[in-house]
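Q: My hope is that you can spare some time for a protein that puzzles me. Underneath my words sits a plain record pairing an amino acid chain with its backbone structure tokens. Those tokens are not coordinates but codes from a learned vocabulary of shapes. Thank you; the sequence and its tokens follow:
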Amino acid sequence: MSKAGLGLSDLSIAPRKAERPSEPSPSATPPVSAPVETGATSMLPKPSEKQRRETAETRAIAQEDARYSLKNLKRSKQRNVKFFVNIALDYELKARLQRAATENDLKMTAVVKAALDYYLKENDY
């Protein structure tokens, strides 16, 4: 297989644009990228320094409020943290606890919690 040779005559080439005159003519249209002005105001208003500062302060206050509310939410979740107690039980006490849990269809932790709660209430704690 041989590649066919291409020359410049095989490609269509657009003619070059004429140079722009130094001063635009009155009938010339404005460039597309230039901002279009209507009267004395432009389409994009330029805020003053005071307006920019107020906008920045408002945005910062809103961000700070969001950050504080997130911290408070995390703190409220931390209050519901469970605390664990390790208890060394002898064999007979553990067997009684297991039997009480299975006969009442409860977990052993529920039985221990109820027993602790009862004990503390009886002793005014």
Remarks:
- The first helix runs from residue 49 to 78.
